Amino acid sequence: MIVTKLNLLDSLPLTCSRTGTCCHGKTVHINPWELATIAKAKGLSTQDFVKEFCDWGGIKLKFEGAIGYKNQPSCSQYIEDFGCSVHEGRPLACRLYPLGRQIQHNKVQYIHEGENFPCLEGCPVVTELPSFTVEEYLQDQSTKRYESGQDNYLEVMQQLAEVAFELYLDNGLADSGSSEALEKWKTLGSFSPSELADSIPLEWREVLIHPAITNIKNPSEFAHQHVTLLLHKAQAKFQQITTLTQLEDACVLMMSLALHLAQSIGAHPHSLAEHWVETAQSHSN
Ligand code: SF4
Questions:
Q1: Could you report how far apart the first and last alpha carbons of the chain are, in Å?
Q2: CA-to-CA distance for 139 and 147, rounded, in angstroms?
């Protein structure tokens, strides 16, 4: 796979024509703030939106609509001859497309796969449209708040993983000589996205995916309130721990939350789990 990196001055030969070729056959992850935002745009509760339109426990949009571009099914939010039914609340992946976004060494990079823009093949009409710089394109798509939401949830994921580390390293689990918890972290990393979602008890999935937060305007505020809810729940539950088995269960649970959230922002649970196991091992020797 060729990945082409772009800087903000590169020119994109397109504006999005909204013909919907980009709304077929894709994988669109959504973090909990994006879920709240898209559900609001649809006029549904997050619970109802997930039931009807999401896979993997609420972190991916279903693509099971009518077959269209390249014989691929459309997104659950796509309406033929109209376009996106939740345009105002569409997630970051849709706003960025055909660009991807990655953070390396604390620097944001915008990328696309291959040497040619996929839109040139999917929507040849884009050649007749005005060119945008990457910066102008991002502004046109109002990505700022959504990029911030993504970065905020990266931090939430790290905070949950830190709790798993604390439970493992600072409470006697590592000292007990048992490697069970780390084996289970690895197993979680090898689960399919649905298996990982299903491995999380319902009461925790509820607070991870459907936090009771009504103000969704500011993603930073939303993520901050969300992690506070999660950490309070963990504190209330884990203060009752009296045995190593309960400690191990708590440690594995927190890791499953972190990995599920990782999936929701497009990170790879498998490599994260491997990395975190190695880190925990190196700190426990
Ligand atoms: S959410 Fe809207 S823009 Fe995104 S893939 Fe679905 S229909 Fe297309």
A1: 38
A2: 12
Query: What number does the ligand 1 atom closest to the CA of 79 have?
Result: 7
Find the 89 Cα to ligand 1 centroid distance in Å: 10
Nearest atom in ligand 1 to the alpha carbon of residue 28 is 5
Q: Which residue's CA is minimally distant from atom 1 of ligand 1?
A: 90
Higher pLDDT, 145 or 113: 145
Is ligand 1 within 6 A of the CB of residue 75? yes
For residue 77, give the DSSP letter: T
The HSE-up count of residue 66 (CA atoms within 13 Å, CB side) is: 9
The CA 138 to ligand 1 mean position distance, Å, reads: 17
How much of the chain is in helix, strand and coil states, percent to nearest 5? 55, 10, 35
Q: Is 163 in the pocket of ligand 1 (CB under 6 A)?
A: no
Confidence of residue 1 (pLDDT cuts 50, 70, 90): low
Residue 103 has φ and ψ, to the nearest 5°, of -110, 120
Residue 208 contacts residue 230 (beta carbons within 8 Å): yes
Q: So what's the pLDDT on residue 12?
A: 64
Q: How far apart (Å, rounded) are the C-alpha atoms in residues 285 and 270? A: 23
* Ligand 1 contact, 78 CB (< 6 A): yes
- What is the DSSP-derived secondary structure letter of residue 255? H
pLDDT single digits (tens) 46-85: 999 999 999 999 999 999 999 988 889 999 999 988 899 9
Answer whether 0.90 is exceeded by the pTM.
Answer: yes
For 191-233, the pLDDT digits (tens) are 999 999 999 999 999 999 999 999 999 999 999 999 999 999 9
Phi then psi dihedrals of residue 76, to 5 deg: -60, -15
